[in-house]
Amino acid sequence: MELTIDTESDIPLFSQLVDQIKGAVQVGVLAPDDPLPSIRQLANDLDLNNKTVAKAYRMLERDKIVKTKGYRGTYIHSDARNNCTKDLNNLIFTELSKVIEKLKGTGATDSEIRIAFADVMNNRTQG
Amino acid sequence: MNIPILLNIVILSQLFLLSYYFPGKIINRIHYMLTHYPASDYPKLYPGNNKMEKARKSLRIFKIISSSTLILGIIFLLLANLTHTEIKDSMVVVFGFIQFIPFALLEKAELNHYRMMRKENQSRLRTAELKRRRYFDYISPSVFIIAALTFLCFIAFCFYRIILNQTFLSDGVISLAAILLMHIYFATLVVWVMYGKKINPLQTAKERELYIGSVIRMTVYVSIAANCFMIIYGALQLYQLDLWEPVALSVYFQVCICLGLGTMLRTNKIENINFEVYRENKITT
């Protein structure tokens, strides 16, 4: 299977990688336990920074699409096909909408919610 | 057959292979490309301002130097026979290196050509195969084991020579260092070719696979040849069979060029190259 990256696209490079690998899993081009190229190999082939490919692999690992077996490399997760259908962005949007609606019900303004959200996120990052 | 006659035949064969046969193959290949894939139809194949002229100039230089080494070799052989001069192994080594000069210059020109192609490549699309490259996808493990065994035999032979000479800086140590350096160079080359950046930015995935395979096979074959040669050459020195040394060296050079360049030319046939990617209006990667 061939990956194609558009360096001038508005979609971030790591997202393009994630989307195409997920797509390959969904259509069955990549099966469970199939090996993926090493970060260095893929980064050099696409003339990208190693960190971009590493970030894409981290995202895929978080979503349980791939698994890393130490020095042996990265493989497709045994449950990758099911995990591909889980949309984390959609989940975040839904849950956050519920919280905002609840806060608005108490009388909180948009700016108060924004400030509080920013503070909570900043404290989490600093913590 | 006596050794001087055999040596003449072997050196003539070396002249034929290194200064006529393989240069001829390369000249025909480049000439075919220049004729069938001109800059007017395939502009991306010829980077720079003067397009095809640079390729033609490199070809002319290659032809002149190869022909010169052939003439020089014939004159050298005639003079050696007429004056009854003994052809020593050092002479074969020096002449062998002279014969390799046009190939080295051509390689340098090729690398410069690809560097300019990379500079001019403005494509926003980049592609890569989603397949992990493994060493044994390109070479049979049995061939690799043969190479490893010949290497072990060579090391054992070196230690035998070191023990025999009772000195640390013996011929055994020097040959061991030379072979180790060669293997380090080969290992670096293989890693670079397998995992490094593409030299030719427009090379397709299939062509790259073929190229990697040919480089890996070439390194393993040359490694087997070098290990065997060093054992034979060492044995000739050990048993003071000096007259056979230039014969062995010349045969070694010929085996190296057949296994090295021969493998590369056989695997990377011009008919297998996808020249469509070098057209102007084609969306390439």
Word description of this protein:
The complex is a heterodimer of chains A (about 130) and B (about 280). Chain A contains six helices and three strands. With about 130 residues, chain A is mostly helical. In chain A, strands 2-3 form a two-stranded antiparallel sheet. In chain A, strand 2 (about 65-70) and strand 3 form a beta hairpin. Chain B has seven helices and one strand; from the N terminus they run αααβαααα. With about 280 residues, chain B is mainly alpha-helical. The chains are: A mainly alpha (about 130), B mainly alpha (about 280). Strand 1 (about 1-5) of chain A pairs antiparallel with strand 1 of chain B.
Helix content of chain A: 55-70%
Task: Count the DSSP helices of chain A.
Answer: 6
- Rg over C-alpha atoms of chain B, rounded to the nearest angstrom: 22 Å
CATH topology of the largest domain in chain A: Arc Repressor Mutant, subunit A
The Rg value of chain A, from CA coordinates, equals 18 Å
**Residues in β-strands, percent of chain B:** under 5%
Specify the helix fraction band of chain B. Answer: over 70%
Q: Give the low-confidence spans of chain B.
A: none
Q: Which CATH class of the largest domain in chain A is shown?
A: Mainly Alpha
Largest sheet descriptor of chain B? none
The tally of helices of chain B reads 7
Strand order of the largest sheet of chain A: 2-3
Average predicted local confidence, pLDDT of chain A: 89
The biggest sheet of chain A, with number of strands, parallel, antiparallel or mixed sense and barrel status, is: 2 strands, antiparallel
Name of the CATH homologous superfamily of the largest domain in chain A:
Winged helix-like DNA-binding domain superfamily/Winged helix DNA-binding domain
Distance between the termini of chain A: 42 Å
Mean pLDDT over all positions of chain B: 87
Structural class of the helix and strand makeup of chain B? mainly alpha
